[in-house]
Design brief:
Blueprint: H1 2-21, E1 30-34, E2 40-41, E3 45-54, E4 64-69, E5 76-79, E6 84-90, E7 99-102, E8 105-111, E9 117-125, E10 133-145, E11 148-161, E12 165-169, E13 177-180, E14 183-186, E15 195-205, E16 209-215, E17 220-222, E18 229-230, E19 233-236, E20 239-242, E21 247-251, E22 258-267, E23 278-279, E24 282-288
Antiparallel strand pairs: 1-3, 2-3, 3-9, 4-8, 4-10, 5-6, 5-10, 6-9, 7-8, 10-11, 12-15, 13-14, 15-22, 16-21, 16-24, 17-18, 17-23, 19-20, 19-22
Length: 289
């Protein structure tokens, strides 16, 4: 009989301690917000802000939060065409969180300890150019009291990488080209049969892109006598075409996003042309799809 009394008193004491620790029922409930529009972009990484906030009735008993992929593999964001991006969860100070195996999953562990909210970052590692498009993934988030799982949620997250394109002349390639910021001048010097200038264009794009080239005056035009015109041809990416035509072609994005194109102009015949200075404006346009 005494043994039963001792057991009953022990159980009653344990319940009283639990009630004292959590005067109200503690659910471990929480909310996770991911705002892709407040992302921070650097040259080699993108940071997505993640805010975790426990509800009042869930806060006291949460010791830690566990973040993991839905499957057992490493966490990745998936884009169009199956493109995969690696990601790492960072703490408030943008330091990587420890990775451990929890319930068979590779997981990030965050000490919560009753905080009202936590501001975390998901770092998308851009070791190569990120192809334009939408990326998405699902993240499993669990609240725990010691080893006991209180609540788990699946959070959908994603971001959109806009198309980026740029073009410039490789400065060290040709002495005949001067300029910057999208405006360049090509000096042919004294014109003669077969006069030629060559240079190289550098294009960066994280998507498919179109290149178009056209001449404003369709010829080299005398500055004082517009009726005096010298035909010439444009060279681009192994192609040769007269200035009277427009060049258009589509190109695939390279792995690094960078590509160099050889470009130039050739003047074949300047016989019997009026002396003076001739000029024309050529537009090279790169448009991301």
């Amino acid at each position: 009989m005494k043994k039963f009394i001792i057991v009953l008193i022990f159980l009653g004491s344990a319940v009283a301690q639990a009630d004292s620790r959590y005067p109200h029922q503690c659910t471990g409930d929480f909310d996770v917000q991911v705002n892709q529009y407040n992302s921070v972009r650097f040259d080699d990484e993108i940071l997505l802000p993640i805010k975790v906030q426990a509800f009042r009735e869930g806060r006291p008993c949460i010791d830690s939060l566990i973040f993991s992929a839905v499957d057992n593999g490493p966490f990745k964001l998936i884009g169009e065409g199956g493109v995969q991006l690696d990601a790492t969860l960072l703490n408030t100070n943008r330091k990587p969180l420890p990775v451990r195996t929890v319930d068979g999953r590779r997981s990030w562990i965050v000490d919560y300890n009753g905080h009202q909210h936590l501001n975390l970052w998901l770092r998308i590692d851009a070791h190569r150019v990120i192809t334009a498009g939408a990326y998405a993934a699902a993240l499993v988030v669990q609240s725990k009291d010691g080893r006991r799982t209180l609540m788990d949620k699946v959070v959908d997250l994603g971001f959109y990488m806009p198309a980026v394109v740029s073009i410039q002349v490789a400065r060290s390639h040709s002495d005949s080209v001067r300029g910057h910021g999208g405006h360049y001048q090509v000096d042919l010097g004294s014109l003669n049969d077969g006069a030629r200038a060559d240079w190289r264009l550098k294009v960066f794009s994280n998507s498919l892109y179109d290149v178009s080239i056209y001449s404003e005056d369709r010829a080299l035009v005398h500055q004082q006598d517009t009726s005096s015109r010298i035909p010439y041809e444009i060279l681009f990416d192994g192609n040769r075409f007269p200035a009277t035509t427009t060049y258009q072609r589509s190109y695939q994005q390279s792995y690094s996003g960078k590509r160099r194109f050889d470009m130039g102009i050739v003047v074949d015949d300047v016989k019997y042309q009026r002396a003076g200075r001739y000029q024309d404006t050529v537009y090279v346009t790169v448009t991301a799809r």
